[in-house]
Write the structure tokens for this entry.
Amino acid sequence: MNEDRIQTFTEEIGELKLRGARADREHWLLVLGVVGLVSGVGMAIFGGFQASGSAILGDQIAFLATGTLIGLALVIAGTALFVRYSLARFMRFWLVRLVHEHRSETDRLISALKDIESKLQQ
Amino acid sequence: MSTPILELRNIRASYGSIEVLHGVNLTVGRGEVVALLGPNGAGKSTLIKVASGILRPSAGQLVIAGRDATGASANALARAGLCTIPEGRGIFPNLTVRENLLMATYSGHKLSDIEQSTYARFPRLAERRSQLAGTMSGGEQQMLSLARALATDPVILLLDELSMGLAPLIVSELYQQVAAIAAEGVSVLVVEQFARTVLGVADQAVLLAHGKVQAFGKASEIGEDVLASAYLGS
């Protein structure tokens, strides 16, 4: 590989735009899901109460549209986010547990084999 | 001594709240083949993801050609010349060999030039040029993924589990190609679960276990006892 290619590569790496430190995106999306879910339920209930407390049809529609419908949309979006990231977290812990169990099994097997080996040598 | 082409300094990486790499240091020199060894779940593939920019480290630095590239996007690094061949080859199974090579022309090289260099390096692919890639043998698919990577004129090549699912003879043949690629000046970081297959062509070896470097040194100096203790956990 010639020096020109290395030089070009080095220059291109130097010109790259770097993103700043990343916050824990997954954690924040999970929190966002919970906030969406709770606030959505609150908005839906608030919209429903306001609509039922008004005798004017126009006000009822406005309360239902801005409170209940948007609230329900938030509930659906929040639930989707919460389920998506909770499942991801659960599956990851499950995988870690499998790996841990596999390692413990291997350690036990090695230990048993060593015991057998030492007894055979006696 | 020239500046290393790839350096990982005290890299920590995690998936959500689970940390997988706990402060890993690794250096790849120019034209060097570095073997990254370790048992299942050691963090090898995660390290490749960090080195290629797919996964951002939670701490530490990714230094490429002496420049801090931590946080650079994977596609920008690939465009510059850091090429990754992922586990499972990453070819397009429903496209022919020629069409797969056509996909590499994004790098600005002509298809005819790519075909010429590919078929010179892997004559078997010339015989298969009109065959669907998914219907070829595992070894031929791996040859195709190597050929497509080389078509982009990489400076650094990251290989993840080259030998996966392949016969020992084919693996040996592929590693000879890797050695030839390194001899041309391309730096190679190769992840391999089966240590013996790669130590023959590697200059340096890094042994990773439980997300930490357990041993680092010349490939010839990594002893059987060190490998056994890392793989068996004793």
